[in-house]
Amino acid sequence: MQEHYDGLAAEYDEHWVYGPEYIPWMSGRIAEALDLDVADRIADIGSGTGLFARAVARRLRPRRPILCVDPSEAMLRGLGAPPPPSLTPIVASAEDIAEGRVQLPYERLDAMWLKESVHHLTDPARTLLGLAQRLAPGGRLLVIMLPATIQYPLFAAALTRFEELQPDPAGIQEHLRSAGLETRLDHIEHELRIDRDKYFGMVRARYMSLLSTFSDREIEDGIEEMRAAHPEPVLVFPDRFAFILGRHPEEDS
Fold it and tell me: What pTM was estimated for this model as a whole?
């Protein structure tokens, strides 16, 4: 999977910026869900090129840099050279942080989020427990993920494979609850409007990690299937997310 993201790094931002309103919208929802404060010690776990961390920092103006944690050094180079003062790159996986294999600049974290990366965890219960243990009293951990089914205009085999591989948000909520956090599960939705040819290009570039499980021939056949099913020049479809928030008790037990 790291090889997939290393290869996608140079074009990642292009494929993820659906439109001018998407990044501000999502970063705003992240900041609101986590109830971020300028004094918070914050980490974006699985930050990629820092698309959302950069927007959150611009909105919040935190007193301390947001930690952009990702195992792909190529992706983190997207932060810039040098990165802006509001962002600090950390080459590490979620498991590295959870197990304490990589030391962070902050002893405890007040807020962290994982956006569409929890499905990459080989042992989500163990990793989320380790991340929860790095929260300060009152700290918040937000998992943002797609629901168990999606309404993307993908080819049928991709939609079927997604449903086979995608974790259930209720199960992730239970992992956070088992880690000792107070939890809540909400859903938010945003309408996407994407030029059809641009979206086909995103699929060809395997903008979703799910698509890396298909061969070049299967991707091209899938795009032909999509082309026949969607003759309209602009694709309009809902992007729905589960927001699972865990909050550490105000006092250590």
Answer: 0.89
